[in-house]
């Protein structure tokens, strides 16, 4: 279980972006960046990463200099015109590779495969350094146990989260109000909800507060390693407790997810025995790190949100089915009168009004005898 390989493509050329995405469709997730002002923000969410730079793009030379200074762990592949000055300069700057803009599929895929393998070694080395710093997982666990014993009980701010939300016909509006309530109760600067509407859908950001612009572009399939990790482990992921994750290859997966959301904590949401989504939390408004008691409170909040979200998704599904049923009944030529077991009229379609010569507003929720001998 490992993080999906991510390739950041910086270009304003739509045709080049289409070809790169087609070549790497199976091998990696390609995130295109067109705005130079957002380049470092996207890189921060996915670092370290393989970066494909179009040397014709705006401010490309300045960005290459910043990559060399501040993002040395990322691997840069420059694309330019053969024998051109920008491509020669890029080759001499010490980047990972320089290639012709007219990409050859097999050569490009092979090059990216080697780059991703190299990047994996960099991540493993970083994890080994962290493990050496914090010690073995068992030792880290022993060090944290005294802190758990002294953890305080949940405090009153949790009570600020509303247990009952007023009914909203717009589910998106309901989720937005949930996010605001969670942010207020948890005392954090950023909150977001990822969920899927029905089985087989992808997990997407449904509502958020102060989320990064790129978060709206993120999608996760049911078989995504992050979803599978939550299914297998069933607990939250916190930036502060990555050192206590026993399996070394799981840390890059969780670190990349936290970076992608701009989050400090991710809490899974469960309903009907399966993952329906997750909540992510940014920094506390005080700027202080989360403690053990804070993480417990976030788990309690997530349980409340799971219930509300499950009901919201169920309401959304029932509303859709009701709309489809009403559309079908209205389009059926014969007159239809729907009556419950107590003889009350609950549906009266337009053909029935014409046949019986009655207005539905006169007979709805009244006894069937009100229709008369007709």
What summary fits the major beta sheet? 5 strands, parallel
Q: What is the 3D shape?
A: elongated
- Looking at the structure, the CATH topology of the largest domain is Beta-Lactamase
Determine the number of helices (DSSP H or I, runs of at least 4 residues): 12
Molecular structure report:
This protein is α/β, with parallel strands linked by helices. It folds into three domains: 6-134, Response regulator (Rossmann fold); 156-317, 2-Layer Sandwich (Beta-Lactamase); 332-371, Beta-Lactamase (2-Layer Sandwich). Helices cover 45% and strands 16% of the residues. The protein is built from twelve helices and twelve strands. It has helices at 14-23, 36-46, 60-70, 85-92, 105-134, 137-149, 171-186, 225-233, 251-261, 292-331, 350-356, 360-363; strands at 6-10, 29-33, 50-54, 75-80, 97-100, 191-195, 204-209, 237-238, 265-271, 274-281, 337-339, 345-348. Strands 2-1-3-4-5 form a five-stranded parallel sheet, with helices on both faces. The longest helix has 40 residues, at 292-331. The radius of gyration is 27 Å and the shape is elongated. The protein starts with 5 loop residues before the first strand and ends in an 11-residue tail after the last helix. The model is unreliable at 147-156 (pLDDT under 50).
Give a brief description.
The chain is of the alpha/beta class. It has helices at residues 14-23, 36-46, 60-70, 85-92, 105-134, 137-149, 171-186, 225-233, 251-261, 292-331, 350-356, 360-363; strands at residues 6-10, 29-33, 50-54, 75-80, 97-100, 191-195, 204-209, 237-238, 265-271, 274-281, 337-339, 345-348.
